[in-house]
Amino acid sequence: MVAISINGKIYQTNADPRTPLLWVLRDDIGLTGTKYGCGVAQCGSCTVHIDGVANRSCQVPLNSVGRRKVTTVEGLAEGGTLTKVQQAWLDNDVPQCGYCQSGMIMAAAALLKSTPKPTDEEIDAAMTNICRCGTYQQVRAAIHDAAKG
Amino acid sequence: MTTTTATLNRRSFLASSAAVAGGFSLGFGVPFSRAEAQTGVQEVNAWVVIHPDDKVVIRIARSEMGQGTLTGLAQLVAEELECDWTKVTTEYPTPGQNLARNRVWGNFSTGGSQGIRQSNLYVRQGGATAREMLIQAAAKDWNVPAAECSAANSVITHKGTGKTTTYGKVAAAAAKIEPPKDVKLKDPKDWKIAGKGVKRLDTRDKLTGAQIYGIDLKLPGMLTATIRDCPVNGGKLKSFDAARVEKMPGVKKVVAVDGKGVAVVATSYWQARTALAALPIEWDEGPGGKINNDDITALLAEGLTAEKAFIGNQAGDAKAAIAGAPKKLEATYSYPYQNHATMEPMNCTALWTADKCEAWGPTQNGEAALAAAAEAAGHPVAKCDFHKMLLGGGFGRRGRSDYVRQAVLIAKEMPGTPIKLVWSREEDMTHCAFHPVMQCKLSAGLDASGNLAGLHVRLSGQSILASLLPQNLQNGMDPVVFQGFNSGGTESAYGYNISNLLIDHAMRNPHVLAGFWRGVNTNQNAIFMECFMDELAHAAGQDPLEFRRKLLKPRHLRVLNAAVEKAGWGKAPPGVYQGLAQIMGFGSYVAAVAEVSVSDQGQLKIHRIVAATDCGHAVNPAQIERQIAGSFVYGLSAALYGECTVKDGAIEQTNFDTYNVMRMDEMPKVESVIVPSGDFWGGVGEPTIAVAAPAVLNAIFAATGKRIRSLPVMNHDLRKA
Q1: Cα separation of A136 and B310, whole Å?
Q2: How many CB atoms within 10 Å of residue B448?
Q3: Nearest by CB: A74 against B65, B209, B271
Q4: What's the CA gap between A103 and A35, in Å, rounded?
Q5: Residues B184 and B301 in one domain
Q6: CATH architecture of A2-75
Q7: Which of A30, B123, B383, B521 has the fewest beta carbons under 10 Å from its own?
Q8: Which residues, other chains included, contact B216 with Cβ-Cβ below 8 Å and sequence gap of 6+?
Q9: pLDDT over 60 (residue B253)
Q10: How confident is the model at residue B39 (pLDDT cuts 50, 70, 90)?
Q11: Contact yes or no for B66 and A129 at CB 8 A
């Protein structure tokens, strides 16, 4: 049994300690907002925050998390109120299929935390997530919007 | 235009919906049944359900995969319904319900950019008919002529008395009204909801993790499976040693699938995947196992000069005109295999019992998915149903139901247990119906004034129909190969007046499966035509725009002019070079101007794309802009990086580390110019992909003097010659 802190709650899981955090979240905890896209840290669909830092959860074994605090996309909007990043996403009508957007939002939220007013170059450097629908233009606009608000 | 007009007969609906309800008592909270279980929720007709609180549920038959069709179709129904747009939600009927109701929702297939253009007439009629029934119900209640009543914003008003009521109050009575036969549809110039860039209806849950995709589905008692299919198409499963993994944590069963694959069923995905990786498997790869990429390249190259070829299009005498021309030009192009690479890997959940079968998953073709599920289940279609889930990308990949068949076959091995089949990215990358390989030899003659005297386009390569739908070949010929190479028509055309023309195809089908890939054959055909037009313009010493203007038909020219005017043709900043391309595909006229620079080290930067489209009617300009921008990400990912190569019969690229795609830092600024001419219905999901690559390739030539004739661009040294 391993204890893990997710979105402010402590969960106990029987998952093998080597299981990637991604699959613990999805299959054991039941938080499916964090998506499987590649499993090799290429696409960023599985991005979560660990102690506030963006991590690709497909590359984080359960036994490496320890007491650190995990935040998933489900943990952003407290009491149903969207965060300013999510609101900017809504205002800019960003998602198409939406599958990569949990990861995009988590990456953007971490970026804005460390760099509140990012330039286009800083956005390019931080946002390496893959979107096959091609929402990049709207993602960029939404990040700038969130930085204003 | 022929359409399947919705049969809006209430009595037959009640009979058949009872049959549906009786047939499916498994009840895992299918979204469709939930609304009807609530009291007072009223289906007015097949397209429109109204709640007592005036909430409007619009039924959508086509699949939403990011392209915005769900919102666009809802706009069209709501426009005619005259309902309050802020109260609109949507739901999918199931393919089983469609069959049980005599296909009242028409075609579910979502491909070929047809979602809106093919169904706009009957969904608008559905909305208009429901509106008339609601008005008549109110008029009857007030005992006034219906002609004195009008509807707006979900409110019905009687002109004489000023009485008002709402849709929610009269919906039950409206459902009993005989549906009017001939409803008049609005003139699009009077549209208030359609034609506007309203926000998508399906955004919020995508921002909070609440949206459930097929891969996220959870059913009581469900197990998860993952599969490895023979890496070589056409190969078979020889043997596997289940005993080696059966005792691994969580493993429930190891099953052979269809004689060519093997799946591990476990409590969770990671357990299934770990066991599958440890499972010893032997394959019989068949003759395909000996094929390498060079073999395929050679097979196609032979077809470029083969005597026998299917003629797709001809006019005059191209060969004689070229032979007699004072100036001749010849070039050979090639296009590789490419994977769709949807962000959500293939998946499907199935529950099989001795007398019925249900499946849930992302599909672009609900009815085909149902048919595949029923066939695999060994049950009549009427004893099966398929529940469509939101797609994490489609791009043509999910028009096929291979993963549905697999899921049902696995579930059949464990009766009564829901099984979710999830493919790994590696399985997904190596098992799709790939964008077909094609080579093309173009020969042309220019007369003494630099005018095009004759053009011969010889295609050599793979037929999608031969791979997926051989029954649709026409005396062996695949007409889809010539997509974009038609002289006219309403579906696809190259757009030039060419008096001596021959376009033919030597079909060469390697063992790799070929399929429909966003943009399909317009992708390579636009490269062949539009890059060669550029070559011809340069050979004739003419500006590529002026050279085209002399040859282009009016609708093509109008869109090209819109693009070059917005871009400022010939006015690029210093060090930046322009290229252009145009085509008509999926019913829409499109053109693009690309602006690129290439550094001394050969580093390409695509600065800006200006893309014009005439899609006839623009149902949601904001979503069209997003489709256009997205189509350049998709098309340029393919042009820059997209290549699946074959080694020992198998696809070599297994994940995004070897199959690169465009990320944010490389995306050019895409400016859309939407110029709808208002007299036809064209598609928007695919057309502009075709002009992405040729516009950029022509700009690269302008920048470097290097003519890239084989894709992807990453294989070329772009340093100036």
Answers
A1: 42
A2: 9
A3: B209
A4: 8
A5: no
A6: Roll (3.10)
A7: A30
A8: A26, A32
A9: yes
A10: low
A11: no
* C-beta atoms of A96 and B633 within 8 A: no
Tokens 């009957």 correspond to B122
B688: its two tokens? 């502009």
What average pLDDT does this structure show over B511-540? 98
Which CATH superfamily hosts domain A78-148? [2Fe-2S]-binding domain (1.10.150.120)
Give the residue extent of every domain in chain A.
2-75, 78-148
- The reply to whether A103 touches chain B by the CB within 8 Å rule is no
**In 3D, which of B495, B503, B494 has the Cα closest to residue B456?**
B503
Q: Nearest CA to CA, how far is A17 from chain B (Å)?
A: 12
A-chain CB neighbours of B271 within 8 Å are 16
The partner residue sitting opposite A130, judged by closest CB among B212, B656, B669, is B656
| Within a domain: B428 | no
**Domain boundary pick from B402, B422, B442:** B422
> Within this chain, do residues B699 and B558 fall inside the same structural domain, yes or no?
yes
ipTM above 0.95?
yes
Which residues does chain B have within 8 Å of residue A59's beta carbon, measured at their own beta carbons? none
Q: Quick one: which of B705, B695, B708 has its CA closest to B548? A: B695
Q: How many domains does chain B have?
A: 3
- Enter the DSSP assignment of B493: B
A11 touches chain B (CB under 8 A): no
DSSP state string for B400-425? S-HHHHHHHHHHHTSTTS-EEEE--H
Do B356 and B500 lie in one domain? The reply is no
Task: Give the CATH number of the domain where residue B642 resides.
Answer: 3.30.365.10
pLDDT at B251 exceeding the cut of 80: yes
Domain hosting B604: range is 293-338+434-715
* Same domain, yes or no: B119 and B263: no
Give the pLDDT means over successive 10-residue stretches in chain A (149 positions): 96 97 98 98 98 98 97 93 97 98 98 98 98 98 95
| Interchain contact, B268 vs A30, CB within 8 Å | no
Pairing of strands B384-389, B357-362: parallel
Q: How far apart are CA B136 and CA B150, in angstroms?
A: 10
B355 and B489, same domain (yes or no): no
Cβ atoms within 10 Å of A12's Cβ, excluding its own: 9
Give me the half-sphere count of Cα atoms (radius 13 Å) on the Cβ side of residue B569: 18
Residue B27 has pLDDT above 60, yes or no: no
Measured between alpha carbons, how far is residue B658 from residues B110, B397, B430, B642, B712 in Å?
30, 20, 12, 10, 13
Could you tell me the CA-to-CA distances from B96 to B9, B12, B99, B382, B383 in Å, in that order? 18, 15, 5, 7, 9
Chain B nearest C-alpha distance from A32 (Å): 6
Q: Are residues B595 and B484 both part of a single domain?
A: yes
Is the omega angle on the peptide bond into residue B712 within 30 degrees of 0, that is, cis?
A: yes
Answer whether residue B721 is part of any domain. Answer: no
Minimal C-alpha gap between B310 and chain A (Å): 35
Residue A40 has its nearest CB partner, among B267, B655, B661, at: B655
Tell me what pLDDT residue B26 has: 31
B599 in any annotated domain: yes
The chain-wide mean pLDDT, for chain B, equals 94
